[in-house]
From TrEMBL, chain A:
Organism: Geobacillus zalihae
Designated name of the protein: ABC-2 family transporter protein
Cross-referenced Pfam families: ABC2_membrane_6
Automatic annotation (TrEMBL), chain B:
Alphabetic keyword roster: ATP-binding, Nucleotide-binding, Transport
Domain ABC transporter, first and last residues per copy: 24-257
Keyword hit for Nucleotide-binding: yes
Native source species: Geobacillus zalihae
Protein name: ABC transporter ATP-binding protein
InterPro entries in UniProt: AAA+_ATPase, ABC_transporter-like_ATP-bd, ABC_transporter_ATP-binding, P-loop_NTPase
GO molecular function: ATP binding; ATP hydrolysis activity
Length: 261, 334
């Protein structure tokens, strides 16, 4: 309960900061929207040329992509860990974090939140609606809750993997270039999993479970019965991923050595 | 009850030794050589509640490392640390509610928002009630004279203004123990005085225990009855500042400004049998004599009897110099 109220306090503060720079905010929104629109057009053009891919139709592939954008936006809004090493370890901000009576990971999530990233979910929803209507998918009232559950699960998978990567900074001094590489790998989860080789499929399911962010949960809404068991596994995988990463994080904090004087 | 208890505390860092040159860099890829550095080497001390203790030492002597272990940021390699009756690292979140920390070179405040907004966030984080906040912070804000700064964003404050706000921010939850790591670094004299006065008042009124590191000896002289001196990770002195001065800064220093040129040999001859050391001053015709305590009247009368003088100044040996002497010798004997 305490954490929830702290969360909202930080969020209010975040909005106040953003509102302080009015023009800046306006420009940011405009450019964000424009970027998303370009993304959208780009996608439609690219997928316009494919009709059938390994048994998946163009609209199904679009739907998967659209679904993927939603958990990805949630992840982007709350887990900006890509410069964790630089900011918190090299510049020593971690010291300050550790002198405050809140969980250190939670504090970093609060400090680095970027709510405008949530806007990225909008094109995702539009794509899903567009593709969904062309596929004339059937929707039930409980699908809304299933959707939310899957989105949370997907965001937790992303968060778990990137938290684990950030944790490396506690153990190794040098900066690692794993982060950008992982962003690349993560994009494989946006496409139908059975177009890949067996090994890659296995990796995307059990080692770096990015398939659970895009194709598996989306398959549920596409009524692909053969993937249902995987789809419903999404929240579980999310929880496991996240829990493991938090445990790694805590081990990392114990190892933390701080910088210089 | 002791606010801080430290026994046989030790912190070792493994430092990667890199070889020189490109070939060396390649070899480093395969085999790494590490050296073990003891940043803090088997120190023990205790600080009573309500004390103000100065923690001093050269750069790299282990001061910050000690403070980081005492505040729960770093885990000790070995030894026992009990602060406010808790193990800082084991119960970090509960523990940090009972301490305040100011790092002189690092900001606690949010850069973009007004100072009072930062305070509000911290108030929430530390679960301080409105009533408690009003009563306590009104006083702190008043003493630090930061009332007019509260609605300005931190990025618009000068260093001195920011530092005073940092201090206030560290005191929002009225902690019984305050750690200050170089709180006056880079500040002008007026701000320094204001901060010192504030810390004194805080200590008197709330009985706040304060541990501070600084390179500014005037901070120590103004605030601390007790100093702990560190060198290469070991405590080389722990006791009152007075005692340190007595033992090391015995004697006075007299600067004579002569009306005409004199020679060292002449002066040496004048004060024969008095254990006086003469040194040439920086200005022309100025000579400084280092005189053992009690010898001042004799030296002055002998010199004044034989030479025409323009000025005489008598100084105590400054603390900075005492400290420097101790660093140079490495340890305090006896």
């Amino acid at each position: 309960m305490f954490y929830v109220s702290v969360f909202f306090q930080y969020m209010a503060q975040y909005m106040k900061t953003k509102l302080q720079y009015r023009t800046d905010l306006l420009i940011e929104w405009l450019s964000d929207l424009m970027a998303q629109a370009v993304n959208l057009v780009f996608l439609l053009v690219v997928f316009g040329h494919t009709t059938l891919l390994h048994g998946w139709s163009r609209d199904e592939i679009l739907f998967i992509y659209g679904f993927f954008l939603v958990p990805y936006a949630v992840f982007g809004a709350f887990f900006n860990l890509w410069d964790f090493n630089e900011r918190y370890i090299v510049q020593g901000e971690m010291d300050r974090v550790l002198t405050r009576p809140l969980n250190s990971l939670f504090q970093i999530v609060l400090e680095r939140m970027e709510l405008e990233s949530l806007l990225g979910a909008v094109p995702g929803l539009i794509i899903m609606l567009y593709a969904g209507s062309r596929l004339s998918l059937s929707f039930h009232w409980y699908d809304v809750f299933v959707f939310i559950l899957f989105v949370i699960g997907g965001a937790l998978i992303y968060a778990g993997i990137f938290i684990s990567l950030a944790t490396i900074s506690f153990f190794a001094d040098a900066r690692t270039s794993i982060m950008p590489m992982m962003y690349n790998i993560s994009s494989y989860g946006r496409y139908p999993i059975d177009i890949y080789h067996r090994v890659i499929r296995y990796i995307l399911t059990w080692v770096l479970p990015f398939a659970f962010v895009g194709v598996y949960p989306a398959a549920y809404f596409l009524d692909k019965k053969e993937w249902y068991s995987y789809a419903f596994f999404t929240p579980v995988v999310g929880m496991v991923c996240f829990t493991v990463s938090v445990m790694l994080w805590n081990a990392g904090v114990r190892r933390y050595r701080g910088t210089g004087s | 009850m002791n606010a801080i208890e430290v026994e046989h505390l030790r912190k070792e860092f493994k430092v990667h030794k890199s070889r020189s040159g490109l070939v060396g860099a390649f070899r480093d890829l395969w085999t790494r050589r590490y050296t073990l550095v003891r940043a803090v080497d088997d120190i023990s001390f205790a600080v009573k509640q309500g004390e103000i203790v100065g923690y001093i030492g050269e750069n790299g002597a282990g001061k910050s490392t000690t403070i980081k272990m005492l505040t729960g940021i770093l885990t000790p390699t070995s030894g026992r640390v009990v602060v406010n009756g808790m193990n800082p690292h084991k119960e970090r979140e509960k523990f940090v509610r009972t301490i305040g920390v100011v790092f002189g070179q690092r900001s606690q405040l949010w850069w973009d928002i007004a100072v009072q907004e930062s305070f509000r966030l911290l108030k929430k984080v530390y679960c301080v009630s409105d009533e408690q906040y009003r009563r306590h912070m009104a006083e702190v804000i008043d003493m630090l004279e930061i009332g007019p700064l509260l609605d300005k964003p931190v990025r618009k404050l000068s260093l001195g203004q920011r530092m005073r706000c940092e201090l206030a921010a560290a005191l929002i939850h009225n902690p019984p123990l305050l750690f200050l790591d170089e709180p006056t670094i880079g500040l002008d004299v007026l701000v320094k005085l204001n901060i010192r006065q504030f810390l004194k008042q805080l200590n008197e009124r709330y009985g706040t225990t304060i541990l501070l590191t600084t390179h500014d000896m005037s901070d120590i002289e103004a605030l601390c009855e007790r100093v702990i001196m560190l060198d290469e990770g070991k405590i080389i002195y722990d006791g009152s500042l007075e005692r340190l001065k007595e033992r090391w800064g015995q004697g006075k220093r007299i600067a004579f400004t002569f009306a005409e040129a004199v020679t060292a040999a002449f002066l040496q001859q004048l004060t024969e049998g008095l254990e006086v050391v003469w040194k040439k001053g920086e200005q022309p015709n100025v000579w400084v004599s280092h005189v053992p305590s009690g010898g001042v009247p004799e030296v002055v009368s002998r010199v004044a009897a034989r030479c025409a003088l323009q000025d005489i100044r008598i100084h105590e040996v400054p603390t900075e110099e005492i400290i420097r002497n101790i660093y140079e010798e490495g340890a305090v004997h006896g």
